[in-house]
Predict the structure of LacI family transcriptional regulator.
Amino acid sequence: MNRRRSTIAEIAARAGVSIPTVSRVLNNRPDVAPATRERVERVIREAGYVRSRVANALRRGSSGIIDLVVPDLDSPYYFEIIRGVEEVLERTELRMALSTTHDESRRERQWLRQVIEGATDGAILVLAQGQSERLDELRRHRIPFVVVDHRGELGPDVPSVGATNWAGGRAATEYLLSLGHRRIAIIAGWPNLRCSQDRIAGYRAALEEAGLPIDPELIRPGEFRQQTGYDQTCALLALPQPPTAIFAGSDLQAMGVYAALRAHGLRVPDDVSVVGFDDVPIATMVSPALTTIRQPLAEMGRMATTMLLRLIAGEPLDSMRIELATSLVVRESCAPPPSPDR
Amino acid sequence: MNRRRSTIAEIAARAGVSIPTVSRVLNNRPDVAPATRERVERVIREAGYVRSRVANALRRGSSGIIDLVVPDLDSPYYFEIIRGVEEVLERTELRMALSTTHDESRRERQWLRQVIEGATDGAILVLAQGQSERLDELRRHRIPFVVVDHRGELGPDVPSVGATNWAGGRAATEYLLSLGHRRIAIIAGWPNLRCSQDRIAGYRAALEEAGLPIDPELIRPGEFRQQTGYDQTCALLALPQPPTAIFAGSDLQAMGVYAALRAHGLRVPDDVSVVGFDDVPIATMVSPALTTIRQPLAEMGRMATTMLLRLIAGEPLDSMRIELATSLVVRESCAPPPSPDR
């Protein structure tokens, strides 16, 4: 096919850039100026260029399929990751095969069998709980894989992408402290999850730095779901001295916090401030819009896919474990605490 | 493989039901009692049964892939459909290849080429706009397909699944009328979409039946997005006689309605009632929880997949065009209009 005749050198010449620059664009590296990236991508589009290593793989008898497996399809959270994977794959000739395991070992075995028998070029796994068995099986069948390990459970020897949970926990707490809050509650995931431990550690670090005591009553574990946010908020409001700010472990939990506060006749942020975690689309849709710690889920999906394409091409990874930065996104759900004399 | 030796007759015997009942369960027919369905499904799981027609297809050299193409991955709406497709496929040996077109013809051509060259057993298309060219191309390559045609644009000769938009438009309006509202606004999609036309027709029918005039000022078109809900609500509130109830064209639009009302110091439902359309998960997460017209998106995905599996197996469809019922889901966002003497 004509489209395969384009080469990186031709593209570099047409775009007026160096060959390494074209490579950087193809590999989704950050160190390319936006205008340059756009010019190169336009030339690629116009020339109908197909990544040569992928084209090579197709000639070698590649399946043309990348497998993405997620625990479930019931949260905006997973969809953000899926979107990121898709954004990278749509620039290739590869299709995404999407599967869910529902955390059932039967489904996991079925998926492994499909992937191994049905042929795949590589797999991206969003882990529910530590499932090292599955990873061993993929290794044994020489299937390249990368893990989106948002929970931080894996060691540095597994190709994985995570987020800086500790820094996120600290940033949320520091922000609430800066507004004047002193009674700050944190709703987290279950204590056995690394991401929960890390966020709570960040929360504690910020409080300790401010010279404030840690009140174990204000640290509430649970599921990353709306119901947990609701139930734990009710429990927090029943304390002799309720918190003036609640830092939720997910935006979905924060929606439960909103509902519980509303049920108690309390207003956000006038009476109680709320911070979420994740920054899924719902955060901008609710009123007041949710201030949250952005976990770059789509970027994590993109990064994992870029790493997997390198592994498939037999290229070395710069690092096996990458953590993307979380960041505070200020919207409308936080304010100074109500004055005590109201 | 051992798992392939199980037959429908064996399953029927083990579950203590008739062979047609097992078939009905396998084909996801509604006419099976829930307890019976569960018993049959448990036997199927325990026996490791694989749908024989799919197993046959695999032996015939099937690709093992069903393609699902959606316009975008930016809405909970598409994710509900994806979830439905996955729920049916996870009971088969087929994997789902998920692609997006972003409404770009370049991406559509790329997808078609991938599907045709890369092998597929069949395709489910969620149409953005009428794209009959693509359907012709699939026909030419003898690729079975079903369209999830939520916008109602296709004729009865294309295998498709839709929803009853007219009935949904009427049900929402009748509900608001029953609460005592007389100034009811509708925010819809663009007027060229069949689904918009149908919902507005349902809205008009309800008003006319109640002997109320149609005020063109209260019919506001736009995108199915939050921003449209926000902008059109601001426009409605600027009318000399603003509406006391707003029926939004999507739950995302309704989120924009909520935000605009809040920005104007108006409460839902005390000052203005709001009804959404779709019933995506966000409807239960906001406060007040959104009363909405449920469009059974996951069921539409399931139904399309079941139809496609029949087409792949060479079985006839009961009907080429199926419309699933919409239904009113009452939550907290509607109340009688405020009394005029307040």
